[in-house]
């Protein structure tokens, strides 16, 4: 998702993908591009870590560990 202003309202808009050139970087963060975790089996607790796997158009995957923070 990404956060965008529509008039005076901030809205989240789904993103189909993220263009990332070879060797490039992207920062996922609040109010910018971010990852939404849906249909979780257990609630997330600040201080926990979760593993997230990103799948690339090249067929490669990258697993990363992300910390859970208070929004």
Notes on the protein architecture:
With 71 residues, the chain is an all-beta fold. The chain contains no helices and 4 strands. The chain has strands at 2-6, 9-13, 49-55, 61-67. The strands form 2 sheets. The protein has a two-stranded antiparallel ribbon. Strand 3 and strand 4 form a beta hairpin. The chain is globular, with a radius of gyration of 14 Å. The two termini are 15 Å apart. The mean pLDDT is 86.
Which series of helices and strands comes N to C?
EEEE
Shape: globular
The parts where pLDDT drops under 50 for at least 5 residues are none
Averaging pLDDT over every residue, what do you get? 86
The helix/strand class is: mainly beta
Q: Strand order, biggest sheet?
A: 1-2
- Helical amount: under 10%
- Tell me the total number of β-strands: 4
Sheet having the most strands: 2 strands, antiparallel
* Residue fraction in strands: 25-35%
Distance between the termini: 15 Å
> Over all CA atoms, what is the radius of gyration?
14 Å
Tally of DSSP helical segments: 0
List the helices and strands and how they pair.
Blueprint (H helix, E strand, L loop, with lengths): L1 E5 L2 E5 L35 E7 L5 E7 L4
Antiparallel strand pairs: 1-2, 3-4
């Amino acid at each position: 998702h990404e956060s965008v202003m529509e008039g005076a309202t901030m809205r989240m808009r789904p993103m189909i993908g993220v263009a990332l050139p070879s060797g490039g970087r992207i920062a996922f963060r609040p109010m910018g591009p971010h990852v939404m975790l849906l249909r979780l089996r257990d609630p997330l607790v600040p201080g926990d870590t979760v593993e997230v796997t990103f799948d690339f158009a090249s067929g490669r995957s990258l697993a990363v560990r992300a910390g859970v923070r208070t929004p």
